[in-house]
Write a structure and sequence with these properties.
2 strands; two-stranded antiparallel sheet; globular; 172 residues; mainly alpha; 6 helices; 55% helix; Four Helix Bundle (Hemerythrin (Met), subunit A)
Length: 172
Amino acid sequence: MTWTAPEVARVDEPFLGDERAMLSGFLEWGRSSLLVKCAGLTGEQLARPAVPPSNLSLLGLVRHLTDVERTWFRRRFAGEPVPTRYWRPDAPDAAFEELDPERADEDFAAYLEECDAARAAIANLPLDHVFVSPRWGEMSLRWAYCHMHGEYSQHNGHADLLRQRIDGRTGH
């Protein structure tokens, strides 16, 4: 039996709420949007690159965003000593270049687990919690939420085009 990405109900962003609820709600919308764009596709379809020479694929995006969630929320802001899952200094594009369609279910499970772990890692941190980047200096958790909104917006736009190329589905 061939694995396919499960159907997902997109979570609406909040229309009312305090700042934390709004930031969290929009992040959840971005997360669920990515999954909606992958729903019903096989591992082979998810791994299909956009157009040569691009290595961009839906499965690659899922893997990349797994590392992004882990890096910003768990490693940097919560200070957890966890390694990146896919990214390596000798292979910065490993999330896109070293994927295996036969393991797409494992990559999706890793993404979902990472989102849960990221939520838990920052649940009790205030928005003013600071991570000091050696490169950029002080950064607030509020900034990280805004950065993640941009990250998901950019990659969900990519995902729209990738999905349309695979099966013509648009507007979801």
